[in-house]
Amino acid sequence: MGIILACIGVMSPFPFYYYLWTHPQTWVDLCGKARDPSKTMATVSHFLKLVQFVSLFSVSTLSWPPPLYFWPLILIGQFLNFRVYQLLGESGTYYGVRFGKNIPWVTEFPFGTVKDPQYVGSILSLLACVAWVPFLYIFLWVLGYVFMIHVESKEDPASRAKPLS
Predict the structure, then answer these.
(1) Could you read off the pLDDT of 91-134 as tens digits, one per residue?
(2) Interatomic CA distance for residues 25 and 45, integer angstroms
(3) Residue 31 — φ and ψ, nearest 5°?
(4) What is the DSSP track for 129-153?
(5) Cis preceding-peptide flag for 65 (omega within 30 of 0)
(6) Closest to 101 in 3D by CA, of 153, 28, 17, 13
(7) What values do phi and psi take at 88, rounded to 5?
(8) Reduced to 3 states, what is the DSSP secondary structure of residue 49?
């Protein structure tokens, strides 16, 4: 039973992300005028990320020192994640454009150099942990990212939410 719960925990954010991407107006309406939809998404996403980490930790066997491949993968992966958040901010990272916000187009590194840099950074960070986490869980998490890369690659501007005024 622990295996199934860990798998569900690892996959838990992806239905949420999919729903928000495909139904942004519903989310904006649910948040109402009092709550910023990107900030609310970020709060829920952070909770779901905690569920993912607890799920991974429950099936992990930690040891020190890490394998040598750990350091470049985790450093590059986290640098990409940090840089994306630095350039896009909370609204840009958490679907602001889908929620009807005007998010400026960014061309600075890693954008224009790395396709889907936040997902690439996250995948590299996960692969860094493969010595401690059974491959099944890393695979499922990466599969979730690949699914979202596919979903988000088909963005139709006409399906964006209209901000509540």
Answers:
(1) 999 999 999 999 999 999 999 899 999 999 999 999 999 999 99
(2) 18
(3) -70, -30
(4) TTTTS-HHHHHHHHHHHHHHHHHHT
(5) yes
(6) 28
(7) -95, -25
(8) helix
By the 8 A CB rule, do 133 and 59 touch?
A: yes
Cα 25 → chain centroid: 20
CA separation for the pair 129, 35 (Å, rounded): 36
Rounded to an integer, what distance in angstroms lies between the CA atom of residue 114 and that of residue 120?
A: 8
| Cα–Cα nearest to 69, from 81, 61, 77 | 77
Cβ–Cβ under 8 Å, residues 68 and 112: no
Residue carrying structure tokens 């840099």: 117
Written as six digits, the tokens of 96 are 């602001």
The pTM score is 0.90
Contact 44, 12 (CB under 8 A): no
Angle between helices 13-22 and 135-152 (to 10 degrees): 0
Q: Which residue has the tokens 């979903």?
A: 151
Indicate the residue type of 80.
L
